Amino acid sequence: MNIKKIVDITALKFVLVGVVNTLVGTGVMFLLYNVFHTGYWIASASNYIVGSIVSYFLNKYFTFQNRERSWQQIVKFIVNISLCYLIAYGLARPLARWVLQGFSTAIQENIAMLVGMGLFIVLNYFGQRFLVFKKKDAAADTETEEPTDQK
Length: 151
Prior knowledge:
It contains six helices and no strands. The chain is mainly alpha-helical. It starts with a helix and ends in an 8-residue tail after the last helix.
């Protein structure tokens, strides 16, 4: 895989959309956790429910310029977001608890949410780019065809 295919204008657009999602979702997450005391899972899940709705539309139309209309794509998006969330936050919480053993639960879980966000971003980028909004490349298909030898 060519690094230039991964780090390009699409990646920059994904980062810009991510800034919007991060501002909105993180605000929701930390507000729910620290002000409304909803707990780790409700706060972090709320981040991704709100952020995912924004992400779907901005990434679909702005980042990946995908015009496909199908329930299958929406299901892929939901599965991608869900798996990325479960993996990222499922790893981040025990890791933060282990590394920050002497700290309070609130500090451990706030750090875990930050680490979870970072893991989620990386996993989600690859999932959206190469699975959910993958471009159907007609040019790549024709390059693999054998040339016909007409004599």
